[in-house]
């Protein structure tokens, strides 16, 4: 049975990289099924994502070890990924539109991930999670208990063997320590293009300013609040007839779309970090 794997890498730009990769895969009796690359001429950096198939059993650890000499020659940072779907914990508060969308796509088999648990600081969305057959873990958060709550979150990441944490309108700011612990494996959804309307009632602020577009931004979580590397943004055109309620509804649609794409692309190993930016092979 043919299996599909991916190789992602980044390094300084120089001749011979693609030839070295394709030759290595050929020597391993693997066929390239999809190949994308990007040359950042401003920083002389090179990024690559190659999907390959093999009719033989592939040992990822062996493949990684044997590719080491190629990587060393070019100074590559690389990763081979197997066929197992990444395991995802979803964190929520009271708003369920993003969670509902993720559950729908997961059940339909097009999320590219395996949802394994829902964690919340409220009980409101327990019925939605449990109706989907997902464990629901209530972790209350107060200013006094926030360190313990975050410690519990990191414990749950280990308990569920989660590869990714998705903040699907989780209305708590993670501490710098938690952000660092989850670096590169936590995605947040923000209710606007960044920077945007911050604070309470963002759609009321947008209405008062007469905006003509509603957007949402999915980004990696970092200690810099809402300033992490952006993975995806969605925009929907509106006009003067949209009151705050309609704006919020359209905004929720944008949030769900941007977040689901970001989760899928991350889980399909299509997102490579590049400083404060990302390279996304969509």
Automatic annotation (TrEMBL):
PANTHER family: FORMYLTETRAHYDROFOLATE DEFORMYLASE, FORMYLTETRAHYDROFOLATE DEFORMYLASE 2, MITOCHONDRIAL. It comes from Rhodococcus jostii. The active site is at residue 226. Belongs to the PurU family. PROSITE patterns: ACT. It comes from the Bacteria. Catalyzes the hydrolysis of 10-formyltetrahydrofolate (formyl-FH4) to formate and tetrahydrofolate (FH4). Gene3D superfamilies: 3.30.70.260, Formyl transferase, N-terminal domain. Residues 6-90 form the ACT domain. The keyword RNA-binding does not apply. It catalyses: (6R)-10-formyltetrahydrofolate + H2O = (6S)-5,6,7,8-tetrahydrofolate + formate + H(+). Pathway: Purine metabolism; IMP biosynthesis via de novo pathway; formate from 10-formyl-5,6,7,8-tetrahydrofolate: step 1/1. SUPFAM superfamilies: ACT-like (SSF55021), Formyltransferase (SSF53328). Pfam families: Formyl_trans_N. Keywords: Hydrolase, One-carbon metabolism, Purine biosynthesis. It is an enzyme of class 3 (hydrolase). GO terms for molecular function: formyltetrahydrofolate deformylase activity. InterPro entries: ACT-like_dom_sf (IPR045865), ACT_dom (IPR002912), Formyl-FH4-Hydrolase_C (IPR041729), Formyl_transf_N (IPR002376), Formyl_transf_N_sf (IPR036477), PurU (IPR004810), PurU_ACT (IPR044074). Its EC number is 3.5.1.10. This is Formyltetrahydrofolate deformylase.
């Amino acid at each position: 049975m043919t299996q599909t794997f991916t190789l992602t890498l980044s390094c300084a730009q120089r001749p011979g990289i693609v030839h070295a990769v394709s030759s290595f895969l050929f020597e391993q009796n693997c066929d390239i099924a999809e190949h994308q690359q990007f040359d950042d001429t401003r920083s002389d950096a090179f990024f690559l994502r190659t999907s390959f198939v093999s009719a033989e059993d592939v040992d990822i650890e062996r493949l990684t070890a044997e590719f080491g000499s190629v990587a060393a020659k070019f100074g590559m940072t690389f990763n081979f990924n197997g066929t197992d779907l990444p395991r995802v914990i979803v964190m929520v508060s009271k708003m369920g539109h993003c969670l509902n969308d993720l559950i729908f796509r997961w059940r339909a088999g097009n999320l590219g991930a395996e949802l394994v648990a829902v964690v919340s600081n409220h009980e409101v969305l327990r019925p939605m999670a449990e109706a989907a057959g997902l464990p629901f873990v209530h972790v209350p958060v107060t200013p006094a208990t926030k360190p313990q709550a975050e410690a519990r979150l990191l414990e749950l990441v280990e308990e569920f063997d989660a590869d990714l944490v998705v903040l699907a309108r989780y209305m708590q700011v993670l501490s710098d320590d938690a952000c660092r612990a989850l670096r590169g494996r936590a995605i947040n959804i923000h209710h606007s293009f960044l920077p945007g309307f911050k604070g309470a009632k963002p759609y009321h602020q947008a209405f008062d300013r007469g905006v003509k577009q509603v957007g949402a931004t999915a980004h990696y979580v970092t200690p810099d609040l809402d300033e992490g590397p952006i993975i995806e943004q969605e925009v929907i055109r509106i006009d003067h007839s949209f009151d705050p309620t309609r704006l919020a509804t359209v905004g929720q649609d944008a949030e769900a779309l941007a977040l689901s794409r970001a989760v899928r692309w991350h889980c399909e190993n299509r997102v490579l970090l590049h400083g404060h930016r990302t390279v996304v092979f969509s």
